[in-house]
Amino acid sequence: MKSIGIDFGGTSIKIGVVEGKEIIAFADPVITGDYPTPAALIDAIADVVTSLREQYSDIVAIGCGVPGFVDFPTGTIHNLTNVPGWKNIPLKDELKKRTGLPTAIDNDANAMAIAEWKLGAAKGCDHAVCLTLGTGVGGGVIANGAMVRGAQFVAGELGQTSISYSGRLGAYNNPGALEAYLGNNEFAADAIHDYAAAGVDKNISDCTPVKLAKLAEGGCEIALKCWDKFAQRLATGLASTCWLLNPEILVIGGGVANAGPILFDPLTKHLHAQLSAPFKDHLKIEKAHFSNNAGILGCAALALDEVE
Amino acid sequence: MKSIGIDFGGTSIKIGVVEGKEIIAFADPVITGDYPTPAALIDAIADVVTSLREQYSDIVAIGCGVPGFVDFPTGTIHNLTNVPGWKNIPLKDELKKRTGLPTAIDNDANAMAIAEWKLGAAKGCDHAVCLTLGTGVGGGVIANGAMVRGAQFVAGELGQTSISYSGRLGAYNNPGALEAYLGNNEFAADAIHDYAAAGVDKNISDCTPVKLAKLAEGGCEIALKCWDKFAQRLATGLASTCWLLNPEILVIGGGVANAGPILFDPLTKHLHAQLSAPFKDHLKIEKAHFSNNAGILGCAALALDEVE
């Protein structure tokens, strides 16, 4: 069964045809800023869908993940971050009307979690927490074999959960927001600070996750300590989700996860140090299977729920 | 429909017959320490059940909440806190065998959450977080209209979730455990400290939640500040559950909740200050409806799931 996944970003909209866990065709991305109104942009997306269906006649549904706040059952977008004019847009109805296909609309972070849960690292798990570490920190929660979207469909904001009641403020003046410690820029700023304390001058481009991982792999004590601190704070945030939800797996994605054992070894150590036996004994801590394509895959998987 | 709720405590076992949300009969408590073996104690419980059924012939099921770690589907107790000898006891099977009635066994904190969810403050809510503030801090989570028990059935440990990655250690060496700040003894210790800083000598019996609430109601600035600090820390822990799960209601129980507006006013203020609009606009923050009887009521409600 084939479905279309639409990864709606602030810059471009990536669209692919998915079968199982393979993206069998990519359309040319739609450039978000090229269209002056939501209606024009929806027309452009619908045109891509039409052209993909000319190549693949057995597409059964469409899923779309958007960077913002969605009313999941109706598929109406309340508002999008970084895409002006998208307020109260009934995207699900509009895409259905233009394509005639069953359509699902979800938050993009949920779509990535769905990719891991339906097709990736958390496949077959009834209880999972997925976290993406990038410029921002986002996530998705699966409990009792279902996505937890919550009362207003905004659940899963792991980056805003707190690891310090008196700590750094997050985007909503929320003290101790995980994102205020673990976002790529904050990680870099902490590393610059730690290097400076040791008399070493670094700038932000020296302190990307990739470069800090290479330094740590090369045995740099300062870089190793930066990763340990990062892992301890991440472990505290994830341990809270474990105490609360007792997941069988924690899935970590985003560029930082590419650090491999440089991240996962201290993370596992700190998580085990902070949890009691029933919470940690069977806990899997895994790297996300999908990276850039998680959005398309998750949306395509979500779409299939509309026809099953 | 009538069912029996059994609130299994380390000191005594309280048993009642429940119809709707009323306890229509209480049995004499069974004293836990009076029975040398689990088998003898189970016999004593079964005898009480038999005698209650002689009075009420239409009892359809039994629910029992225990202070420890239970394998929920099988009803086998892995171990109990403060009750020696209770390791790997198949309590569900044993009670079923002795009584012939459908039986459910759950953790006592879950039972209290079930009471609020099925019968009390969170009745009709599909997404709820229940917290009990006492000597310890416990809780239960409802998402998508179901209890979240997690992969090993130990979810809902709100007291162990962290509000400080570098803070006070909880019972499992977990930094920043909510319980290490908000347990009754910790609240008292903080108050003693704050009074001492103002040159006022207080001891632990002066600083119970009841006495601190009276002092605050009387306008004592120090007591008001103690409650504000307590509320700010509690808000941080609860805000994390909101970001993660987007519940429609937070239910607060335990003796501290009896402080009423002295607790709930600053708690609401701090929660609103830490959350963004979709998370807080429809959020209810309510006192638990049940106190000492929550265990019996929750267990009796849980029991009915076994026959429905």
**CATH fold-level label of the largest domain in chain A:** Nucleotidyltransferase, domain 5
Radius of gyration of chain A: 20 Å
Cα shape of chain A: globular
CATH superfamily caption of the largest domain in chain A? ATPase, nucleotide binding domain
Q: Which regions of chain A contain 5 or more consecutive residues with pLDDT less than 50?
A: none
Mean pLDDT of chain A: 97
What is the terminal-to-terminal distance of chain A?
Answer: 11 Å
Provide a count of the helices of chain A: 10
How many structural domains in the coordinates of chain A?
2
List the helices and strands of chain A in order. EEEEHEEEEHEHEEEHHHHEHHEH
Describe the oligomeric state of these chains in a short phrase.
Answer: homodimer
Instruction: Return the structural class of chain A.
Output: alpha/beta
CATH architecture of the largest domain in chain A, by name, is 2-Layer Sandwich
Query: In the CATH hierarchy, what is the class of the largest domain in chain A?
Result: Alpha Beta
Strand-residue fraction of chain A? 15-25%
Number of strands of chain A: 14
Q: Please summarize the sheet with the most strands of chain A.
A: 6 strands, mixed
Greatest interface by residues involved? A-B, 54 and 54 residues
Measured as a percent range, the helix fraction of chain A is 25-40%
Characterize the structure shown:
- Two copies of one chain form a homodimer.
- Chain A is an alpha/beta fold and 308 residues long.
- The first copy, chain A, has two domains: 2-113 and 293-305, ATPase, nucleotide binding domain (Nucleotidyltransferase, domain 5, 2-Layer Sandwich), CATH 3.30.420.40; 125-287, ATPase, nucleotide binding domain (Nucleotidyltransferase, domain 5), CATH 3.30.420.
- Chain A is built from ten helices and 14 strands.
- Chain A has helices spanning 38-55, 91-99, 108-118, 179-182, 184-197, 209-217, 221-245, 261-274, 277-280, 294-305; strands at residues 2-8, 12-19, 22-26, 30-31, 59-66, 68-71, 76-80, 87-89, 103-107, 128-133, 137-143, 146-147, 249-253, 284-287.
- In chain A, the strands form three sheets. In chain A, strands 1, 2, 3, 4, 5 and 9 form a six-stranded mixed β-sheet that branches. In chain A, strands 12-11-10-13-14 form a five-stranded mixed β-sheet, with helices on both faces. The first copy, chain A, has a three-stranded antiparallel β-sheet with strand order 6-7-8, with helices on one face.
- The first copy, chain A, is globular and about 60 Å long.
- The N and C termini of chain A lie close together (11 Å).
- At the A-B interface, helix 7 of A face helix 7 of B.
